[in-house]
Amino acid sequence: MSDKPPPTTFGQAGRSVEEVIADLEAKRVDDVKWSDGRAFGMVYDGGPGVHEVAEKAAALYLHENALNTRAFPSLGQIQSEVVGWTSELLHGHVGAEPASGFLTSGGTESILCGVKAARERARTERGIDAPEMIVAESAHAAFHKAAHLFGIAVHKTPVLDDWTADVDAMAAAVNANTILIVGSAPQYPQGVMDPIPAIAALAADADANCHVDACMGGFVLPFVERLGREVSPWDFRVEGVTSISADIHKLGYAPKGASVILHRNKDLRRFQTFVFDDWLGGFYASPNLQGSRSGLPMAAAWAVMQHLGIDGYVDLTRSVLANADAMRAGVDAIDGITILGDPTFHLLAIASDPEAAQPIDVFALADAMERRNWFHDRQGPPDSLHATVSNSNAGVIDDYLVDLAAAVAEVGAATTDDRSTDYATLE
Fold it and tell me: Edge-to-edge strands of the sheet including 178-184?
C-alpha cells in the first residue's frame, strides 16, 4: 500500500492499479458493515454462492450495453428471460396473454415507468391532459417524484390506524382525471400490506391504472406463500391490477441496478416505451428511462435467479421470516419501544411505546445503536426506526436484541435534537 495521501484533484498523471484500489479500500473504512449483518436495508446478502455467481456474471458483462440488443442479442435474451420468470412468479400468465415488461435500474425507475404508462394510456384512450393520481401517504416517495417529472397532480390520502391505505379516502379522491391508483405489497414504512383487491376494483371502476409497488415484496411474497404462510391477494391474480414493480436487487439478492416493471399485457406495456424516428442518427427507441443500459446488473440478476432457483429463494425466505419473527418478538419484550402496526413478513418499524413507564426517544436510540455498529434508517412521522430483515441478518438477531436492550437502558429519558430522517441523501 502506498504511503502517499489520496489525491484531492484529478491529477495530470495516472496512478497504478494498486494505488487506486488501495485508496478505494481505505475510503470504505467508515461504511456500514452490511456484510456482518449490521444493517437492516440497502444491501441484501444472498450468501457466498450468490456472491460468486454474481461477480463472475458481472465480469463477463462489465462493458456490454443493452442500448441496442441487435449488437448484444444475449442481453435481449437475458431481459426476456428474467422478465418472463418474474411474470410467472407474480402470476402474470393467468390471463389469455402473459404479462410483459422490461428490466430497469431499480424500484424508482420501475415506478416512474408505471406512472408514465398510466399517463400515456389515459391521454390516448380517455383524452386526459390534466392527469391526477391517488397514493396513500405510505406509498413510496418515488411516486411523488414521478408526478413531479410527468406533470401529474397527486392526491395523498391517509392511512388507517393499522397503517394500511384508507380505500374510502381514496374513493373520495377519484374524479374524471384520475389516471392511476397505487397500492403497496407491502408498503415500506411499517411493512403492512395494502388492500390491493379493493384498490384495484376502485381503479377499474374509474377506468384508471392500478400499480402495485412490490419492490420490497416481489421476491418475498411468492415464496412466503409457498411456505404456507397467509398472503393477502396482491399480484396479477387480482382483477384490475395493471402493473407491478418488483426489485431483484432487494430480496432477489442480485447486485444493485436490477428491477422489473411488469404490465398485465403487451398492449398496456406499449404506453411505457418511447419511440422516435425523426433524427439524423436513425431510429431511436427506449423501453424505460435510460438510453445506454449496463449489461452488468442484467446479467448478474439472471445469474443469481438461475443459481438460486425456486428452492433457493424458498430457503432464504424461510430464514428471513424466522429472523423477522424473532426480531419482532424481541422488540415487543423490551419496555419503552414497540412495533408499529402488525407486519408479518420482513419489514418493521420500531417506535416509542407511549404506554410504557419510560417511553424512549427512538432517534436517540438510533444513535446508541450506531455506536454499537448497528444501522437503521430513521423515518417518520411518527418517529421510528426502519428495519428490512433479509438473509444478511441471519445469525445476528440474538446479538442485535442484546444490544438493543442495552441501548434502551442507556438512553432512558435522554433525547436528541437531531430529528432528521435519512432514507436517501443528496451528497
Answer: 100-104, 259-263, 243-247, 209-213, 178-184, 132-136, 153-157
Task: Give backbone dihedrals phi and psi of 60, rounded to 5 degrees, phi first.
Answer: -65, -35
User: In terms of DSSP bridges, do strands 347-352 and 337-339 run parallel, antiparallel, or are they unpaired?
Assistant: antiparallel
pLDDT score at 7: 72
- The CA distances from residue 67 to 75, 113, 128, 287, 293, in Å, are 10, 17, 31, 9, 6
d(CA 187, CA 195): 11
- Can you give the pLDDT at residue 3? 57
Q: Is the dihedral of CA 334, 335, 336, 337 positive or negative?
A: positive
Distance (Å, whole) CA 421 – CA 383? 9
Say if residue 382 is preceded by a cis peptide, omega within 30 of 0. yes
The alpha carbon torsion through 115, 64, 88, 230 (nearest 10 deg) reads -70
Say whether 125 sits in a helix, a strand or coil. helix
Count Cβ neighbours within 10 Å for each residue of 179-199 and write b for 16 or more, e otherwise: bbbbbbbbbbbbbbbbbbbbb
The secondary element (H helix, E strand) that includes residue 15 is none
pLDDT for 1: 44
Domains of the chain from N-terminus onward:
58-306 (3.40.640.10), 309-411 (3.90.1150.10)
Q: Which residues are CB-contacts of 274 (< 8 A; sequence separation ≥ 6)?
A: 285, 286
Whole-structure pTM value: 0.94
Q: N- to C-terminal Cα distance for the chain?
A: 28
> Does residue 65 contact residue 314 with C-beta atoms inside 8 Å?
no
Alpha-carbon span 64 to 115, nearest angstrom: 28
DSSP codes joined into one string, 287-322: SSS-SS-BHHHHHHHHHHHHHHHHHHHHHHHHHHHH
Contact between 191 and 160 (Cβ < 8 Å): no
Tell me which residue has cell 396482491.
Answer: 234
Other beta carbons within 10 angstroms of residue 24's beta carbon come to 10
Question: From the first residue on, what is the mean pLDDT of each consecutive set of 10 residues in the chain (427 residues)?
Answer: 66 91 91 84 90 97 94 96 97 87 97 98 98 98 98 98 98 98 98 98 98 98 98 97 98 96 96 95 93 96 98 97 97 96 97 93 96 93 95 93 97 92 77
pLDDT given for residue 35 in this prediction: 83
Structure letter (DSSP) for residue 245: E
Q: Do 216 and 42 meet the contact criterion of CB atoms below 8 Å apart?
A: no
Peptide bond connecting 6 to the previous residue in cis, omega within 30 degrees of 0: no
